Amino acid sequence: MTKSDDAREDFKNGFTCSSAVFSAFSDEMGLDSETAKKIACGYGAGISKTGNICGAVSGAIMVIGLKYGKTKRGDDAATEKTRTLVRKFIHEFTQRNGSINCTELLGCNLSKPEEYEKARENKLFVTKCPDLVGDAVLILEKIL
Q: CA 125, CA 34: separation in Å to the nearest integer?
């Protein structure tokens, strides 16, 4: 199974989109899957159903930060590399999906209970979100 398949499967099994993406890379980042899922949990559904940035995107940005982020004062090259890769990821994800914003991607603002229910009724979490999770992982594999 590929990382993309693993992430899609985690999402289909009830983990948030952010957790599914972030934990797909946890082993190679020196983090156990359970801890990765806990860290990323709150970012799912457009950052905890607020309609903001897609959780799959948030999970991907955390992967980039974990791999390349700045850990030492003065290591501005690490910050710049991280930011460059995040921008590259965002560009590619937007090219594929039209946005990085959960509300725009789903056409529903998950912060509104009636729109969250509409997304559930229209099976967006089954039909649309797994593809967003898979895309995020595929893009990460390409740029890391």
A: 22
Taking Cα atoms as reference points, which of 144, 129, 134 lies closest to residue 45? Answer: 129
- Tokens of residue 63, six digits: 């992967």
First to last CA, the chain: 19
> Is pTM, for the whole model, over 0.90?
yes
pLDDT tens for the chain, 144 residues: list them: 899 999 999 999 999 999 999 999 999 999 999 999 999 999 999 999 999 999 999 999 999 999 999 999 999 999 999 999 999 999 999 999 999 999 999 999 999 999 999 999 999 999 999 999 999 999 999 999
The SS3 assignment for 53 reads: strand
Name residue 43's amino acid. Y
Q: Are 134 and 8 in contact (CB under 8 A)?
A: yes
Please, are residues 107 and 116 in contact by the beta-carbon 8 Å criterion? no
Reduce the DSSP state of residue 101 to 3 states and report it: strand
